[in-house]
Amino acid sequence: MGDSKKICYNYEMNNIWNDLPHGFTILAPMEGVTDVIFRQVVAKAGRPNLFFTEFTNVSSFASEKGRANALERLEVVSTDMPIIAQIWGKNPEHFAELAGALEGLGFAGLDINMGCPDRHVNAAGGGAAMIRTPDLAVECLNQARRATNLPVSVKTRLGYTFVDEYREWLPTLLKEKPAALTVHLRTRKEMSKVPAHFELIPEIAGLCRAFSPETKLVINGDIKDLAQVQELSAKYPQVDGWMIGRGVFENPYCFTNRQATQTELMELLNYHLDLFDAKDAELKLQRAQALSDGLDVEVKGLAFEPLKRFFKIYIHSFAGASELRAKLMKTKNTQEVREILRRA
């Protein structure tokens, strides 16, 4: 593909967004959740049409010290495909640097996070803070797009403080013709404390048609499962796709039209533990190899504590679930978890 494609942003060729069925589903990028291990769990339970990675800081990738960690977050496996790399930051040159590298890492596209409400991310000028710096946001988008042949999309919120900010903010993005635009139907200030503003979908879809009809519109916020997606698709046919986030915590089978049994959830938890142990062993082997080669490289095993946030996905809604989960929260390794589950 030549430079003319990068300048004109013609996404007709090799554009994953054009290959997805109407009403497609996406697992939302969630920090500390949608890593390479959990994506494999979701794929086993019933995958969405498209995966996103956790978001990666472009400036971390641009630094010698942070690049290894950035690449670790961008690890993909065969069950991920197709998958979009989500990135964030505020330095246009760093966006270009990471965008240029993603094409060779197996990604079908890249998405710029302009909606994360985390205060640390916002203090660094990224995520939802970009709503307040629209010129910089546009520059970052275009620098990333010029550096890659991958389709570039954006995920954002209605506004930073006020709901009606979307009337100016979304057209600002749409005029740049992103391949897709995901709108979380809340503001940064609202976080997830209020219901998503589904009533605004018709107007948002109208903005897409007016400013960039080729851009795929994806809606996020308070979407729980495939049944709800099908209901919403019938009500709002102008929406191309739907993104499920926290719904996966209520039901890891949310991209299917069924509720898992307790036995299936326990099997899925054990599968998660198997994947965790395999990855932990792989990292420790890498460290041992590096040390034997005389390299001063810090390669650690996986931290166990973050794994505990997933227990509630599998252990709920049955007699004794709370007590069992409380026991698991006191464990220090997967061996202890397996022993408690074996006795349960």
Structural notes for this entry:
The structure is a single chain. It is built from 16 helices and eight strands. The chain is of the alpha/beta class and 344 residues long. An eight-stranded parallel beta barrel has the order 1-2-3-4-5-6-7-8, surrounded by five helices. The longest helix has 31 residues, at 262-292. The chain is globular and about 60 Å long. The relative contact order is 0.11. The model is unreliable at 1-9 (pLDDT under 50).
Name the features.
344 residues, alpha/beta, 8-stranded parallel beta barrel, globular
What is the chain-wise order of helices and strands? Answer: HHEHEHHEHEHHEHEHEHEHHHHH
Specify the overall morphology.
globular
Number of helices: 16
Query: Averaging pLDDT over every residue, what do you get?
Result: 92
Unreliable sequence segments: 1-9
Helix content: 40-55%
Q: How do the helices and strands line up, and which of them pair or pack?
A:
Blueprint: H1 3-8, H2 16-19, E1 24-27, H3 36-46, E2 50-57, H4 58-62, H5 67-73, E3 83-88, H6 92-102, E4 109-114, H7 119-123, H8 134-146, E5 152-157, H9 166-174, E6 180-184, H10 201-211, E7 216-220, H11 226-235, E8 241-244, H12 247-250, H13 262-292, H14 311-314, H15 321-328, H16 334-343
Parallel strand pairs: 1-2, 1-8, 2-3, 3-4, 4-5, 5-6, 6-7, 7-8
Helix pairs in contact: 3-13, 6-8, 9-10
